[in-house]
Each structure stands twice: as structure tokens, then as C-alpha cells.
Specification:
This protein is α+β, with helices and mostly antiparallel strands. The chain contains seven helices and five strands; from the N terminus they run αβαααββββααα. Mean pLDDT is 75; it is low at 82-112.
Length: 181
Amino acid sequence: MSKYDPLLQALLAREGSSWRVRFDQVEKILGIDLPASARKYPAWWSNDHKSHSHTRAWLRAGWKTEQVDIPGEALTFRKIADTGVRGHGGPTGSPAPVRATAVAGDDTSLHLSAVPQSVMAVLARRAAAGGTSLQSEAITLLVKAVEKSDRMTQASSIRAMTPKGQNFDLAALIRQERNAR
């Protein structure tokens, strides 16, 4: 459990699409003081999930930060993920039009449309079991898919560098490469 989970839970429960909040309010939700860097550097509030573990709290909840005011000790959280059925699917069993938005590392959005009801039902079950939102589950699964794709690319690269006919343990080579970094 992350010390930033209370913020994740507060954002999941939050109604509306934006929330202007003071740093001391965030501290009250967390039950701990923010680190000094949160009050000194706007980058602490960035939306980069790879560099900042605390960022994952709001991104997993489907929110991003903006309008960070260090001198005024305030910022705005804006909802970035919106999933919801926009229709009910036709008589032919076609999927209902659904829009899901997920944040990427460079603050771009990804829109999925025509997600089948069966997929939405699985996401809803996963969200309920994990106590998260549909948005959070969709983002988590997309991140896992990208990570798997990255591992497959790495494996292909290692295979390409290995002489033909030579036996090798691909998992050991990947571990060895990872440890060398």
C-alpha cells in the first residue's frame, strides 16, 4: 500500500471534472506532510508516472494535475478518464460505443471506441474486486500491455543478436541485461 493511496481513494470518490485544492488539504487527506520538494518544485506535481511514484495515485484514479501554483500552494486536479456506455448496442449484437481515455507519459490521450459490453463487464468486475474505477482498470491493463510489448521487443532484439544454432536461455539473458543497467 502506498502512502499516497488516500489521495487515490479521494479522487476516485470525487464528483465533477476538476478540483482546485490547496497543498494543506492534500496533506489532510494523506495524513502526512508533503515533502519539501512538493512546495518548491512544480515538477513534483508532474503527470509522469515513470519518474514519480506519487504521480501514480492521481493517474490511477483517472486525474491529472495542472495549474500548479507553488507560491499560492495550490493546484488543480482535472479528470482525464471518462468511460461510460454511450449506447446499448444494436440488434446485431454490435458493441455499444464507449470512450475510454488514458494518459500516456507525454500527456497525450488514447481513445478507445466500440469496446464490447463483455469487455466492459470484465473491467467492471476487476474494478469492483480491486476497489478501483473502470478508468483505473483500463489504464492499468493498457500499461501492462505496453510493458509486455516492450519485453517482447527486447526478447526479439536479443534473439536477433544471438548466432544461429546457438542454444541460449532468453530469460537469463534478459535478467543479465537488466542487471547490467
